[in-house]
Amino acid sequence: MKKTFRILSALTLCAMIAVGFSACGNDNIPNVKTQDEPKVEDSTDGPQKIVLKFAMGHFHPGAAFHQSSFPEGVTHAKTEEVFSFEKKDGAWILSEDSPKAMFVESAIMGLASLNPYGLWISYFDKEGKEITGTFSEGGMIDRYQHFFSVSNLTDLDDKQIAGDATQVTGLFDYVYMDSDPWNQQIKKGAKRVGSTLISEDETGGRPVLEPLNPLGLKGFFNFKMTRVKFDLNVKLLNMPEDKMDNGKPRAFHAPKAGAKEVVSFTLPVVVFMSRGDLDKFHLATDPDDYDVDNYDNLSEEGKALVDHIAKTLNFTREQAFKEVYKRLNEYAKDSSTLYF
């Protein structure tokens, strides 16, 4: 098994969250380029397919992540989305049946983890057999770690963003939520090993966690900057001798220089609005007098939000208006899936 890992190749992520991982509009999808020159020789013995599962959610006490849900018919906000990558000619290519980008919402600033997006990463060999556990089982977690970076950051009109705003930690946080066993839920008895719960508020909705033995087969993002798009780059590194940095876990955005790449891929991400934008959707008159088909009853801020969603996601104004109203006012059946 160890011999297998020594010959795993490195090849050339970006795409989010709830609300909305995916949408119909293509104008706001970043142009993605895979790496032209893989850093190590190509091999068919390592991962040949990668599957990413994203889910928008919230937290219960004990840092228990729970997938959110929306009323039936809401399409601008998807609480679960799946992307797959296949290795072709030494490069990782987003499959044709995958969404072209991940459309997400940023959190409300000052309320950390209010709008978390969970990520689960699965690996498969050339026969289609899942090999995710080989990066965690038998002590392998002590040598592997996923890292995240950003490139091609622009606003939604393709204007480049410069300065401190380009720093990864200004765009999002990522928390490792790996468990032992790797494929079992913490709420069902698995031990959390990717991070340690330091504190949480009374509701459990804003947990504070610190890295412990980070791997990144599962974890969550909290997006901070809104109305931007970028390429999310993901690397899995093999660091058999020094995964830790002087005994301390490495930050999600600070890989060890010169470490061997196992995989490297890119997914487009579009942060099309903030969760706080929904507060702008309100009536100029009493809600009891509300006509669901009457766009004119909205405040100016509400109209601007509807117009923004329509433009960004290639919706009609009527469709955007009805969807936001439905999301905020109709019942959504609670989800019981995708816990960590």
Brief characterization of the structure:
The protein is mainly beta and 340 residues long.
Q: What can be said about the biggest beta sheet?
A: 7 strands, antiparallel
Distance between the termini: 27 Å
- Write down the overall geometry: globular
Tally of discrete structural domains = 2
pLDDT averaged over residues: 82
Q: What percent strand?
A: 25-35%
Number of helices, where a helix is a run of at least 4 consecutive DSSP H or I residues: 4
Radius of gyration: 20 Å
Explain what the structure shows.
- This protein is mainly β and 340 residues long.
- The chain folds into two domains: 2-276, no CATH class; 279-329, no CATH class.
- It is 11% helix and 31% strand.
- It has four helices and 15 strands.
- Strands 1, 2, 3, 4, 6, 8 and 13 form a seven-stranded antiparallel sheet that branches. A four-stranded mixed sheet has the order 5-15-14-7, covered by helices on one side. Strands 9-10 form a two-stranded antiparallel sheet.
- A hairpin with a 2-residue loop joins strand 3 (80-88) and strand 4.
- Helix 3 (300-313) crosses helix 4 (317-329).
- It starts with a helix and ends in an 11-residue tail after the last helix.
Secondary structure topology:
Layout: H1 2-6, E1 49-60, E2 64-67, E3 80-88, E4 91-94, E5 102-106, E6 117-124, E7 144-155, H2 168-171, E8 172-176, E9 179-180, E10 191-192, E11 195-199, E12 208-211, E13 218-223, E14 228-238, E15 260-274, H3 300-313, H4 317-329
Parallel strand pairs: 5-15
Antiparallel strand pairs: 1-2, 1-3, 1-6, 3-4, 6-13, 7-14, 8-13, 9-10, 11-12, 14-15
Helix pairs in contact: 3-4
Protein name: Lipoprotein
Keywords: Signal
Signal peptide: 1-25
